[in-house]
Specification:
Layout (H helix, E strand, L loop, with lengths): L12 H21 L6 H14 L3 E5 L2 H11 L7 E5 L4 H9 L3 E5 L21 E4 L11 H11 L2 E5 L7 E2 L2 E2 L6 E5 L13 E5 L2 H10 L21 H11 L2 H19 L21 E4 L3 H10 L29 H7 L2 E4 L7 H16 L1
Parallel strand pairs: 2-3, 2-4, 4-5, 5-8
Antiparallel strand pairs: 1-9, 6-7, 8-9, 10-11
The protein binds pyridoxal-5'-phosphate (PLP).
The site of pyridoxal-5'-phosphate has 14 residues, from α3 and α4.
Length: about 375
């Protein structure tokens, strides 16, 4: 079994092969420039990315988790405050809330889209609630109109976890532009992935922007003098240069993802008991992940892996049931839809460089499994 034949869940190698000259050239320019962290390239990328998101300002940080954490900090959310979010997400959403000292309060999700169920938010609001943190999971935006409406009525802040949905539109507007702050991740597997770690917090509020700029650098504005207690969360020049380069072809890369998703959905919609991803009419899906539902999930995953297709479960255990978060006090049965989904979901390989042969192999393997 050669490694070459395995269809990975995600792979960046053909991207690197196709663009290695430009990439190495950019790295060389950074190394020769004499400035490695928080320089001109970070500034350029902050401008380009915030403008891509349709907001005024961007602050490059060390990761998506830090973008969420710093967003909560500058909004004054911390110990004793509750943040309404979902358990059906990647752990970092919750890690960021806890890093700020706040308490996550989970609401259940919609069975068809996997996304935060806006109709469940209001009953979760208490006198301690300060913020709603929607997660635009797998690449599709949460229903932002009802969410923002609830936030306004109760005087809550909104911090969007956009880590999986860079560029996605809800009613024609990009994610990250609905709340006070939008947080993005440039972790290599993400829609816009760096060649290392990176993240960004975006906002149109100048005051929040200025504080985010300070907090990522020990609270310093003028040399060696801290205006307020801060942290170290910086984006480096290499990642910024590479991200700025990749941003130019981001929409094209997403079109490729959508094309693959379209083929999967067309070919698999009437196979076995598979339910293909649902996309609401008023928004776009970036297909960070292509996730199906089936009651034969375990057997299908084993079969695909035997056939050298790296199918994955995102995510096998909801955060509220993980040992690391048991102290929050949730129990099995508290979030029935989230828990039911965890037993039925399976993500098929999707990334812009996935070959036609690879796509066909995934489709025929899934079909073969259900023929048996
Ligand atoms: C990846 C991810 C994050 C965190 O991003 P990092 O850059 O890895 O810190 C946060 N939320 C979600 C939903 C993610 O998928």
């Amino acid at each position: 079994m050669s490694d070459m034949k395995i269809i990975k869940n995600w792979d960046y190698k053909d991207e690197y092969e196709a663009h290695s000259k430009e990439i190495l050239d950019l790295v060389d320019k950074v190394f020769s420039s004499g400035r490695l962290i928080l320089g001109r390239r970070v500034e350029e990328f902050e401008k380009a990315f915030s403008s891509y998101c349709g907001v005024d300002f961007g602050v490059g940080v060390n990761s998506g988790t830090d973008a969420l954490f710093l967003a909560l900090k500058v909004l004054g959310i911390g110990i004793g405050d509750e943040v309404i979010t979902v358990s059906n997400t990647a752990v970092p959403t919750i890690a960021a809330i806890r890093a700020a000292g706040a308490t996550p309060v989970f609401v259940d999700v919609e069975e068809d889209t996997f996304l935060m169920d806006a109709t469940k938010i209001e009953s979760a609001v208490t006198s301690k609630t300060k913020c709603i943190m929607p997660v635009h999971l797998f690449g599709q935006p949460v229903s932002m109109d009802p969410l923002v409406d609830i936030a306004k009525r109760h005087g809550l802040k909104v911090v969007e976890d956009c880590a999986q949905a860079t560029g996605a539109l809800y009613k024609g507007r990009k994610v990250g532009s609905f709340g006070e702050i939008g947080a993005f991740s440039f972790y290599p597997t993400k829609i816009l992935g760096a060649y290392g770690d990176g993240g960004m917090a975006v906002t149109s509020d100048k005051c929040l922007y200025e504080r985010l700029m300070r907090l990522r650098f020990y609270g310093i504005e003028k040399e060696y003098y801290s205006e307020e207690e801060g942290y170290n969360s910086r984006l480096d020049e290499i990642q910024a240069a590479l991200l700025n380069f990749k941003l130019k072809s981001l929409d094209e890369a997403v079109l490729k993802r959508r094309k693959i998703a379209e083929i999967y959905s067309k070919e698999l919609s009437s196979v076995g008991d598979i339910e293909i991803p649902v996309i609401r009419d008023d928004r776009t899906h970036q297909f960070y992940l292509y996730t199906i539902k089936t009651s034969y999930r375990g057997a299908l995953m084993t079969y695909l892996r035997e056939n050298e297709i790296e199918a994955r479960i995102n995510y096998p255990t909801p955060v509220h049931l993980m040992r690391g978060y048991r102290f929050l006090g949730y129990r099995e049965g508290d979030l029935p839809v989230t828990e039911r989904l965890a037993g039925r979901i399976l993500s098929l390989p999707i990334y812009q460089g996935l070959s036609v042969d690879g796509i066909e192999k995934v489709v025929s393997s899934v079909r073969n499994f259900f023929k048996k």
